[in-house]
Design goal:
alpha/beta, 5-stranded parallel β-sheet, 12 strands, 47% helix, binds fructose -6-phosphate
Length: 367
Amino acid sequence: LLHEYEHYMLKEICDQPKALEDTLAGRLKPEGVQLPELEAVWTTEALKNLRKIDIVASGTSNHAGIIGKKAFEQLLGLPVEVTYSSEFIHEHAALDDRTLVILLSQSGETADTLSALREAKKWGCPTLAITNTAGSTISRKADSTLLTKAGPELAVASTKAYTSQIAAMLLLSVWMAQKLELGDVEKRQELLDALARLPRDVDSTLIMTQDAIDQFAQLIDDQEHLFLIGRGLDYVLALEGALKMQEVAYIHADAYAAGEMKHGTMALITPGVPVIALATQGHVFDKTVSNIKEVKARDAFVVGITRVGDDLLAEEADEVMYIPDTHPLLMPILAAIPLQLLAYYSGKVRGHDVDRPRNLAKSLTVE
Ligand code: F6R
């Protein structure tokens, strides 16, 4: 199964063009998104009834959920809340039959998320599972299921399931907007066109970043702290990048909303500390560049990740990695690739078991 790869994690990172292609296949049509598996439960009437969406998930799946939140908000104009499953079980805002609860789970077996599903059902909420595992418990118990088709994920750290979950939520948000006839058709089409290019863009991202990230991992192999900063979707992705570094490289990595550094975290920036600055979102690019200047002024070692063509970063950061330019909602999928690779190569250079990090299990069937 591993073929030419040294570890499952690397294989699964490199599998992402195919995982995304399979998740989009048969659903992304020239005339729009088709999700026949949801038609029976989700009639236009049922969708019109919704007032709120709650996305509930654990760990990396929760981070995918926060990206999904931005898509649902932008395309449907509905309020969306994202909660950790382990928190949702005990505390949540008002729930009723007009609140759609989306459960995101690669395995479809995570005990916390299964308990959250039971809680949602107790309140009469319609439920929709997005999972990578057909026939899993969460999929069987939810009212409806949308499958990601990433294929089996064997490394403990989730990679291809994460990017496939984001793609599935983008499909779902467009499909709902189509049925509700919401929003600007041209804007929706731009997103669909970008989704169609996504597997190729992910492939290019792998080619553009893999060697540079391998070298960077070696450069920071004696560092114990790492900061990831960004604004908007870049901040959400920073959360996921930090989790991967903690999990696989055992580095104390933290994500910060770039504009929040000056409200406290800047005190932690010491000379030479590595900072990964994500700057892939056009509307906040200039502000992120100002934040990079601030950490550079404290002599941090800054690696910028940005879109091809955004040359301004090269003047401010110590190193810049470029990734293809696409629709803003898809940038977190592309920018996830170098962060996954960094966790992998950092774990490897530090001699860790990258496929089976200490103290962790792939499927968490206890709360
Ligand atoms: C991190 C990771 C975990 C899982 C989490 C939820 O790389 O893999 O944080 O994302 O345990 O698992 P699922 O998605 O199977 O419910």
